[in-house]
Design brief:
Metallo-beta-lactamase, Chain A, alpha/beta, six-stranded mixed sheet
Length: 185
């Protein structure tokens, strides 16, 4: 689950969060659009339902992030490892450690890039990948440029991997992608 700056309200309004015995959150990096409402989710689950959240992250400042947002240590469990999760180091922003990950869930191998400027670290994980979630951009030097990556994405898709584009930053570009003008489908 990504808990970007608008996500907590949507989760709270659209899901009965109390019905879940366990909620796991994977944090790839500490920009607001990926971790902005993490503390809100943890605090809500702890103070309203008395339930702990498990946070998976390799970000070196995750504990500091939770501390400065007033999140009590007893309200969450912080882990860097799970049998079905492997973090993949990426390149994103200069002074921020960033990761993607490979996740095995419901007999599916899922790879998510997180914010990155290159697909290179992910190639070894795509051989048996069922779903590939890729954050792309049209106009950014801190995100994967869609036009520069389109040939690689087509090749990945041709190996029977479903490719999902995310984080797109231009409305006209989204329309072109949705209209198959780039022939990714």
């Amino acid at each position: 689950m990504i808990v970007g700056f608008t996500v907590f309200g949507k989760l709270k309004n659209n899901f009965n969060l109390n019905k879940y015995e366990q909620i796991d959150v994977i944090i790839t990096h500490l920009h607001n659009d990926h971790a902005g409402t993490l503390s809100q989710l943890i605090l809500y689950m702890w103070f309203v339902f008395n339930k702990k959240i498990t946070v998976y992250s390799k970000c070196k400042n995750i504990k500091t992030f939770l501390d400065i947002t007033g999140t009590p240590e007893e309200s969450y469990e912080l882990k860097t490892y799970s049998d079905n999760l492997e973090f993949i180091k990426t390149e994103h922003a200069k002074d921020l450690d960033s990761y993607g990950f490979k996740l095995k869930v419901n007999n599916k191998n899922i790879v998510y890039t997180g914010d990155t400027i290159t697909l290179e670290p992910f190639f070894p994980y795509l051989k048996d990948c069922d779903e590939f979630y890729v954050d792309v951009s049209k106009n950014s030097n801190a995100h994967l440029n869609f036009e520069n990556a389109i040939q690689d994405l087509r090749k990945i898709k041709s190996n029977n991997t479903k490719v999902f584009l995310m984080h797109i930053d231009d409305k006209d570009y989204i329309k072109k992608i949705n209209n198959n003008e780039f022939f990714i489908d």
